[in-house]
């Protein structure tokens, strides 16, 4: 009889479904209604018992009566419950009519909880699922090692520095960085190009223009002639002009800043024409002597 | 021959003689006794080393003897030297490539019609490290905004982003509290690249770092993107940054591709002289490895993949790289 069962299993002896914790005892039996180990909740110690269990999303009502206690195979009677919540509750009521209040109430509670979690499962499967991709240890190790070797082979700092210097040479930075030698070399090259174009331009002028204009050009100073040519060179990029002007300015300042002391003859940035002037003071000395 | 070998294998202790002759049929691995076998192996190794040294000396002497007529020094083989030639390597003068580039999704950016605006976000529930990494990334990339993803689906974020004029979307995937993946998606219907991210270093973990990155637009350096695939990925990276760098800021962001690993660094440079430049690392650093490139925006199920990394087919050769 159930009382004896309970007095043995529940209190004194060993029950394999019983799990004890500090505060409570739990029952691991699948047919248990509440999950706790109580006199009223133990499916073994109650000859009349009912539970709700769900399988693959459908809920069933399981019932156990005294009449079938001798036939373990037919012990649990199973009723499929309606998918509709209210109708299922009615079904429970109708099947468990005249059963103890406790079992009826707990059955309905359990059914409610089960339907709620089934709804939640269905909602979650519609949302994004996190896909777990297993790591392969060998591959992870291989990748890590290859990454390290690639890092060493890359020599990042050197590569970046080289690239930046390349860009400086390609003049992508424009006028921000003024290194005297660099600009000086550039200016020299440009002067070489300009002098060629100058000589070409002059030749053309001599052929095409009048005599007076030619005299103008010859008589003027080397500085002014250069300015004229600079005007003619408006077609070339402004940068060249700016650089020239800057070179002129910087050349004057470069003595303090420049790396190499620029010597006298090397300082000549433009084709320098040596013009000898006869000094007027000579005749005065002659007259004095006389 | 055989007797000598037997006699030698008998000695376990005595010091190695000067000239040990191993008969050609003898192999160290045939000795069953471990101690003796180890000893013989060491001796064999020493002998090999001596022979190698002698050969080197001889070669050097020959080289000096020949003087100018000596053959040029052999270039050592590196993985980069031995790389299997990829048919899709971009030739700088290739017209087809130029035409493709003029008509692909990045053309408006490169023609300066669009200004990049970037949205950085993470996967669900980011941990502290990822959050800080996102913030630092936002300082590195100008005109970028960090938004938290509170369980929103990417497919629904994307139309909203397009409506708000974002040009790029970066999603940093996190696993076990460290960022490990990056999805870079060009928004108005552009390609999506999925990378695996590794060795992420935040600013405070970088040694000898400089001050914080300023608001200036940095320059971009893209190194070593040789194949067509690499080219398109490089353009993707370039389109993250505004087209006109502010040289006053002296900041440079580098994407360096080496053996299919893309290293990202962020430096501040200063030209000490014409031939010398100093660089100082600020900003986070990470390495990326491309996993897949999709034609449209992010769509894992129905997207059209331009390139997926298939381990079995593509990782067969150690000398073959795809980027």
Automatic annotation (TrEMBL), chain A:
Basic residues composition bias: residue spans: 252-270
Cross-referenced InterPro entries: Mak16, Ribosomal_eL28/Mak16
Keywords: Nucleus
Chain segments annotated as coiled-coil in the UniProt record: none
Compositionally biased region (Acidic residues): 195-210, 218-229, 236-246
Superkingdom assignment: Eukaryota
Protein name, entry field: MAK16 protein
Organism: Furnarius figulus
Gene: Mak16
UniProtKB/TrEMBL annotation, chain B:
GO-annotated biological processes: maturation of 5.8S rRNA; maturation of LSU-rRNA
GO molecular-function term, one example from the UniProt record: rRNA primary transcript binding
Biased composition (Basic and acidic residues): 62-71
Keyword Acetylation: no
Keywords tagged on the record: Ribosome biogenesis, rRNA processing
GO-annotated cellular components: nucleolus; preribosome, large subunit precursor
Chief localisation class: nucleus
Matching SUPFAM superfamilies: Class II aaRS ABD-related (SSF52954)
PROSITE patterns reported for this sequence: BRIX
InterPro entries assigned to the protein according to its UniProt record, in alphabetical order: Brix, IMP4/RPF1
Ranges where the Brix domain occurs: 116-299
Gene3D superfamilies (alphabetical): Probable brix-domain ribosomal biogenesis protein
Compartments in which it is found: Nucleus, Nucleolus
Protein name: Ribosome production factor 1
Organism: Furnarius figulus
Gene coding for it: Rpf1
